[in-house]
Each structure stands twice: as C-alpha cells, then as structure tokens.
Amino acid sequence: MIPRETAAIIIKLRKQFPVITLTGPRQSGKTTLLRSIYKDIPYVSLEDIDIRNTAINDPRGFLNNFPRGAVLDEIQRTPELFSYIQGIIDENKEIHFVLSGSQNFLLLENISQSLAGRAAILKLLPFSMTELQVEGLIPDSYEQLIFKGMYPGIYDRDIEPGFFYPSYISTYIERDVRQIKNIENLNSFSNFLQLCAGRAGQIVNLDSLATDAGISPNTAKSWLSVLEASYIIFFLQPYYKNFNKRIIKSPKLYFYDTGLACSLLGISSADQVKTYHSKGALFENLIITELMKSRLHHGVNPRFYFWQNKTKQEIDLIIDKPEGPVPIE
User: Fold this and answer.
1) Beta strands 96-101; 19-23: pairing state
2) What's the pTM value of the predicted model, to 2 decimals?
C-alpha cells in the first residue's frame, strides 16, 4: 500500500470527533486507507444489498451490532442511519463511527442535517505527486503524468490507463449517475461528459455546452451538478474582492483527474498529450488539482479562485489567504 498523507490527519481527528467522514471519488483509495487505520472496529460496506436492506429496515438494530463503532462505507446509500448515529454518539462518548462515500452532495446533506458539529469532514482524492514521488512512482514527464492520471489502481495494481478509465467511466455512468439523479438517456449523458472534458480549464458557457450536447441549459446545469457531486469535476469561482464589476462571473471547469479527462478526450498515449491542441489547459488542470490535494489531504479547505476581465486579462489561480490574495501564474 502506498502511504497516504491523509492518514495522519485521520489518526489525529479520531481522538477529537465521534464521527469522521471521508468522501472522495470512487476508487480514490478510501476503503484501503480506512481499513489500514481502523483495524479495531468492523468495516461494513453498504453497497452489499443484504446488509443495506438490514440497515434500512432496522437502523437501530443494525447499529447495535457495533458497540464500539464501525467503518460504514457508501453510507449515502442508507440515509436512514444518520439520525440514529446521532443518538448513539450523544449517549455513548466512547463509540466512534467512520462514514465513507463517493457522492459528496448526498453524504454532506445528511451530515449537515443530523451530525453538524459532531463529524470531522475530510476528502481523499487520487494520489498526489508527493505521494507518488516518495515511492519512486512519479512518471518521467508531465505528459506521462497527465495521461496516466493518479488513480490508485493504475499504480497499486499496474492497470493500463487504456483499460482502467473506460471501465471506470462505464461503472460511474451505470451505477453512480443513476443513484444521484434519474437520468434516462445515459448515452446523452456520456456525450455530455466528453464535451466537459474538452472544456477543462475553460470558463463555463452553459448555453454553448447545452447546444453542443443537444440538451437544455437547465439540464446542462443539472448534469454539471451531478458530475460535481460525484467528484468528477470541480469549479473555480471568479474572485470578486477589490475588483470592479467588469469581470467574468462564470466559473472555470476542471477535472479531479487528468487521466480521466484524457480518456474522455480519446487521448491514448503520452505522445498524444504532447500534440493535443489544449495541452496547456490539461497542464493547468494538473497543477491546480495538485495544489488542491496539498490542502485537502491535510484537512485544509482550499480557498481557490481565478480572475479574468472582459478584455481577457487573466490570473489562473488566486489563493485567498487571511493576509490577502496570492496570485499564481
């Protein structure tokens, strides 16, 4: 197992919070990490339909099976458990639960309703460059790094990107998308996802994206929310402070992993990255994602923005710090 930077934060927070929540993309290494840390309490996957039905039909009885707590994976599948967990941890200060899931919106919505102030919330993205470098696994060039991406399966199990990402995308569309939103035309959604990859590092033009995808702007907005909730994409919002109103107000779109974006773009080798017409956008995506990991994997919420005015003057990244904004080019 490749050591994760987040491990030290989880171990520290375990002593301070009755509940730890770990969210992040599917297959980003959450289960492996939590199993390595929490060897003293049971691991339970709520993806298992029999276990899930038991939890849904008798939440209190299900949780009583874990007198010291448990790691509950894919917890967003059983929202019935949240209020019961609240009651248990309020009564028993010694018990500890770990809630893990790959759907940000569904999970955090339930936490904010039932476990506010009781749960530490962490995010685990795929490997960082630092984590790979420590193990001597960093690719030889940025083009290779962009193409391979950083999902653990590619490094832990040595799976070729050409096999890993198409399977990942297929599983994501067939399983996760249906859970988050009842999208009838999955082929149309798949096409939309590919169009988003072509816009990585760009300011979102909702009307243009909707037109190219053959859907309404409202549907495009809804589908972007689905991609964001499941950790496929994220947005940088424009920085408003201390600037006049003549600035761009739409966010910029990025992928959490450039390897996934490359697969969606049909890029099948590092050499193709070198000649890709928007190579600069992929490189920008890589750097911003790495900076995000350097915060998120240490439990720090990144305050990242960009700035662009209507004459196309731009600052790719602004880090908002208490002492003032820090521009990065």
Assistant:
1) parallel
2) 0.93
**Interior CA angle at 189 toward 183 and 195, to 5°?**
155
Give me 155's structure tokens.
């490094």
- Say whether 290 sits in a helix, a strand or coil: helix
The tokens for 123 are 């995010």
Q: 6-123, what's its fold?
A: Rossmann fold (3.40.50)
Six-digit token string for 140: 């030889």
* Strand-strand pairing, 252-255 and 233-238: antiparallel
Calculate ∠ Cα 14-42-300, nearest 5°: 30
What are 306's strand-pairing partners? Answer: 238
Cα separation, 171 vs 190, in Å, equals: 12
Q: What rounded mean pLDDT belongs to the chain?
A: 92
User: What distance in Å separates the CA atoms of residue 232 and residue 165, rounded to the nearest whole number?
Assistant: 12
Q: What is the pLDDT of residues 296-329, one digit of tens each?
A: 999 999 999 998 887 778 899 999 988 888 888 7
Q: Domain coordinates of the chain in residue numbers?
A: 6-123, 139-328
**Residue pair 166/267 in contact by the 8 Å Cβ criterion:** no
What tokens does 171 get? 């599983």
